[in-house]
Every structure is written in C-alpha cells, then in structure tokens.
C-alpha cells in the first residue's frame, strides 16, 4: 500500500527526516534528489537513526557507531549485524509516497 508521506521539498538534499507510518518509525533520506526510506531503529540497540549522522550514502548510528548503506539497508560496520528494512519510494506531483 502506497502512503503519502511529505512534499519532496520538506527534506533537504543530504538530509534525513523521521516519520511514523502505520505504526512504523522510518526515515526518509534525500541523496541528491533521490529518496530512500528505511527503518529508523538501529538493529543493534534500538537507537533512533534519525538522530545519527549521514555521510554520503551511509547512516551512522548515534549510540554505538554502526553504519548502514542508505540504498540497501545493509550493515557496513559493527556492532550491528542485522540489515535494516527498506521501503520503496515513489514521487508523484512533488509528494513522496512510501510502500508499506
């Protein structure tokens, strides 16, 4: 099911923003006008990734430094060992939609 999240201009290039969609906490990341949606919760210690840092296409967890690839959700650095769930994103008339 596609769910309207926000206008594309609400998330600046190189930034991420947290949303709650159907009870799920997700982050939307804008990398050079390409948008990605992932679980917001680190798979290591349940920290909110939206409070972490974004370095290029990598999200760094603020609690223990685990790193995840924005485009795939894959773990890139310990202590996390489980990948993040990603959600398909579509843009329609300047609005972001996420498939949950």
Layout of helices and strands:
Elements: E1 2-7, E2 15-21, E3 24-31, E4 34-39, E5 53-55, E6 58-60, E7 67-69, E8 75-77, E9 86-87, E10 89-92, E11 95-99
Antiparallel strand pairs: 1-11, 2-3, 3-4, 4-9, 5-6, 6-7, 7-8, 10-11
Order of helices and strands: EEEEEEEEEEE
CATH topology: Rieske Iron-sulfur Protein
What is the tally of helical segments?
Answer: 0
The CATH class assignment is: Mainly Beta
DSSP strand content:
over 45%
Average pLDDT metric = 96
Oligomer: single chain
Class computed from helices, strands and strand pairing: mainly beta
- The dominant shape is globular
Largest sheet: 4 strands, antiparallel
Gist of the model:
The protein is mostly beta strands and 100 residues long. The chain has a single domain, classed as 3-layer Sandwich (Rieske Iron-sulfur Protein). It has no helices and eleven strands.
């Amino acid at each position: 099911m596609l769910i309207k999240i926000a206008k594309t201009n609400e998330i600046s290039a190189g930034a991420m923003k947290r949303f709650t969609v159907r009870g799920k906490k997700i982050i939307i990341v804008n990398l050079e006008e390409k948008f990605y949606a992932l679980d917001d919760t680190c798979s290591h210690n349940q920290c909110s990734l939206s409070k972490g840092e974004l370095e290029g296409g990598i999200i760094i967890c603020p609690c223990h430094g685990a790193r995840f690839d924005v485009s795939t959700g894959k773990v890139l650095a310990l202590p996390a060992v489980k990948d993040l769930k990603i959600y398909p994103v579509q843009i329609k008339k300047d609005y972001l939609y996420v498939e949950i």
